[in-house]
Amino acid sequence: MWRPTCFGQRTLWLCLLAFYLPRLDETTSCAYRDMPKPVQFPGCVPLHGRDFLDPVHDRSNEGYKSTLQICKKLKLASGIMVNSFTDLEPEIFKALKEAQGSQGFPQGSQLM
């Protein structure tokens, strides 16, 4: 079966957040900005929920719901091209491959 490859103009860290957002949504009931402890994503430094991207701060917002749906579909991709390189985010490349079975394809700097 053919599976698409996804291209993103973001860093691999943001891609990893997208993979883990559905799991976080299932296991957390409060607003992310109100979480008492930082979230530990594999291969990353702990991150406070208040530092997440604006679209995911309000879980009742349509923007959050749309972002969550996109994140769920990202798991269908056979690979993800990202604006990064292996030496910049080695632990995140490793964590993404181990946790999701997806391959990140580093593309180096993308200037637009």
TrEMBL record:
State the Gene Ontology terms under molecular function. transferase activity
Enumerate the SUPFAM superfamilies for this protein. Answer: UDP-Glycosyltransferase/glycogen phosphorylase
Q: Which UniProt keywords apply?
A: Signal, Transferase
Please state the span of the N-terminal signal peptide per the UniProt entry.
Answer: 1-26
Q: What is this protein called?
A: Hydroquinone glucosyltransferase-like
From which organism does this entry originate? Prunus yedoensis var. nudiflora
